[in-house]
Amino acid sequence: MLSQSLQQKLQLKQKLSPLQIQTIKLLELPALELDQRVRKELEENPVLETKDNEDETEDNELSLSEYYGEDDSIPSYRLYTSHQSKDTTRDFPTFSVKESFRQNLEAQLGFRTLTDRERKVALFVIGSLDDDGYLRREPETLCDDMAFRLGVEVTEEEIENAIALIQQFDPPGVGARSLQECLLIQIQNKQSKPSIDTATLILEKYFEEFTKKHYDKIIARLDLTEDELKEAIDEILKLNPKPGGHVDDSYTDRAQQVVPDFILDLKDGEFVLTLPRFSVPELRINRRYADMLLKAADKSSRESKEAATFVKQKLDSAKWFIEALRQRQNTLFNTMKAILEFQEEYFAEGDESKLKPMVLKNIAEKTNLDISTISRVVNSKYIQTHFGIYSLKYFFSEGLMTESGEEVSTREIKNILVKSIDTEDKRKPLTDEQLVGCLTDKGYKVARRTVAKYREQLNIPIARLRKEI
């Protein structure tokens, strides 16, 4: 027998206001993206305008209470904002890109005598290369893609011919399907001599043993001396495993810029923290559209009401955007100020060993902000200091306790690991257990699994793979 019951459940749900949503989105943007976002808003919202005249008086500012009435919850501040410091504009580092990786290959293609069809296939293969210069797609898939995207049906043989052509281009190794093929293409371009010939044999027949550093097996199978093997391996180590990076490190056609979101100066022993000037203009409400709302509100026609609704929506949007910018600036400044206070000893000298262990929670507690808010502020933001430009993420790390009870940053532990591995005997690299011993000797009590985790985070291979002869 089925029974039915009626239950009443009370739930509390927090709904974000448009202003909160706007502020969250703006917090995530670094300086250059914020510039683009503001310009987009200016294009889409006719109620917003730039405040070009610095000498305008308070009387010229728009008070929205004139249009909304006293019942609307309008904040008391003037509805315009500046997120520029009064500092003069500075020159910020620009990382320029000279020629993209693919442009370089296409230029080389131009010197080959090819039919239109062959050129089209080769261009498609070039466009299918990964940024490191490898081709990780099967010829069959490329045939299907060409038919689907370009409406051109080609055979796998035509694709293979294009790949073979591209593999003749500079940088050597481009267009390879694997690391082994990439290194072989490069070694085969070198002039023959005993060490080159041995290196070629190793790459052709004993590549797996080479990658796993099973040198004893290679010596036995090729009947080599240890010196002969070392000379061959030295030849291999001179090759470029990522040929795509040989032309251009960024693989992009556009110049890239890192514009700091903060500037920290040290003047007469005192820190001066500012948000730099950049091309984002000051914003305010456009009086003309506000007047339209006031006039439309006096009429009762349908068109007038629709016009009034439209302008009111745009005024709301402008109000939220301006206040969101203001809140973004305040949140960024307060967060960076808290980081500066927490890491004051480090910022005074730029000495990495002075960095204290610091997590998002530490700054959230100092600023009375949510951890999620701190995370948004820190992400993709940079600060210019008197000792360089740094990502805000750089200043955060977990901590460990020394035997004396002092808390140290995990970054300091990692630095010790790097130095220990850099100075180890490469014929007998340090195992993780031995690295634990190195840290213990310096007063850091760290478990072997922790050492292994830090080593992996530093992209350092295990001892056997670091072995050299």
Give an overview in words:
- There is one protein chain.
- The chain has 469 residues and is α+β, with helices and mostly antiparallel strands.
- It has 20 helices and 11 strands.
- Helices cover 48% and strands 8% of the residues.
- Helix 9 packs across helix 12 (226-237) and helix 13 (287-296) runs antiparallel to helix 14 (302-342).
- The longest helix has 41 residues, at 302-342.
- The radius of gyration is 31 Å and the shape is flat.
- Mean pLDDT is 77; it is low at 53-98 and 246-256.
Helix count equals 20
- Compute the number of strand runs: 11
Distance between the termini: 81 Å
What value does the average pLDDT take?
77
Shape: flat
Percent in strands: 5-15%
Largest sheet composition:
4 strands, mixed
Enumerate the spans where pLDDT stays under 50 for 5 or more consecutive residues: 53-98, 246-256
Instruction: Kindly name the structural category.
Output: alpha+beta
Provide the domain count. Answer: 3
Subunit arrangement of the protein: single chain
The largest sheet has its strands arranged as 6-5-8-9
Radius of gyration: 31 Å
Range of helix content: 40-55%
